[in-house]
Design brief:
Shape: elongated
Strand order of the largest sheet: 3-4-5
Domain RING-type: 4-51
Protein name: RING finger protein 224
Order of helices and strands: EEHEEEH
Number of strands: 5
Distance between the termini: 46 Å
Radius of gyration: 27 Å
GO molecular function, one term: zinc ion binding
InterPro entries: RING_finger_domain, Znf-RING_euk, Znf_RING, Znf_RING/FYVE/PHD, Znf_RING_CS
Keywords: Metal-binding, Zinc, Zinc-finger
Length: 131
């Protein structure tokens, strides 16, 4: 869950889009609209973290750059939500499709097999890069 540090609401793909100020800090669009102010006949958005002013674009806060990394994370979470508390299948489940619960490691994989060392050490010294 990715959230705005001002309002602690999760970013979304509509009113709480993650917008980036010139200083690089990111906040939701709704909070930045509330911070938009006029000083010396110029509209500014003061960063709540570092106090650097960002001039408000002509179209308002909605014209600030999206924080693309955060936006893509929010979009991915919306497109493919994670299942946090997945219940185990039981015998009362109807239908022929039941999940198999893996309780032990499959045979033939990583059982007491140690790959040979790529850089074998001589027995003469402490671990180092040269031997």
């Amino acid at each position: 869950r990715v959230e705005c540090i001002i309002c602690y609401s999760s970013y979304d793909l509509s009113g709480r889009l993650p917008r980036r100020l010139y200083c690089g800090h990111t906040f939701c669009q709704a909070c930045l609209k509330r911070l938009d102010s006029v000083a010396n006949e110029q509209r500014w958005i003061p960063c709540p973290q570092c106090r650097q002013n960002t001039p408000t674009p002509r179209g308002g806060v909605a014209m600030l750059d999206l924080d693309l990394a955060t936006f893509l994370t929010v979009k991915a979470d919306k497109d493919h939500p994670r299942v946090l508390n997945r219940s185990q299948p039981n015998s009362t489940t109807k239908g022929s499709c039941k999940e198999k619960v893996v309780t032990q490691q499959p045979s033939g994989l990583c059982q007491d097999v140690v790959p040979p060392a790529l850089f074998p050490r001589r027995g003469c010294c402490q671990p180092c890069l040269c031997c």
